[in-house]
# Entry
Amino acid sequence: MALSIGPGSNEEEMLAVINTTPLVDVMLVLLIIFLITVPVVLHTVPVSLPKYRDKPAQSKPSDIVISVDRQGAMYWNDARLPDVATLVARLETESARTPQPDVQIRGDQLVRYQYVGRVVDACERAGITHIAFITQPRPKGR
# Structure
């Protein structure tokens, strides 16, 4: 901000003048920076995303279904498993079979993710390569 006092004016009449040249310079510099950086920010890694399939999966008798209820209890088909170590031991014996069976995980919609994560971690430790999550089918008309 600059103050101008004219030669014939008294001290009570000051004229306040704002120099806008630095403001315009800063705005032009910011505009140039944004024009340069926006295309860089918008570039993403090209990834081929999977398409939505609305067809039910076909279960084979050899598939293993592991269910997790709301309290986090695990079930091998219909038999309750006492702990994760038992699950890992049973999965290790199944992973040695040829061909390796698919593991289908059914988690209750209200179960905390950590309990389903324990099952996924157990599958990974046992060397299971095919894991699927079972969900309810989408209602018709959507």
User: Anything to note?
Assistant: The CA atoms of residues 95 and 128 lie 6 Å apart. The mean pLDDT is 80.
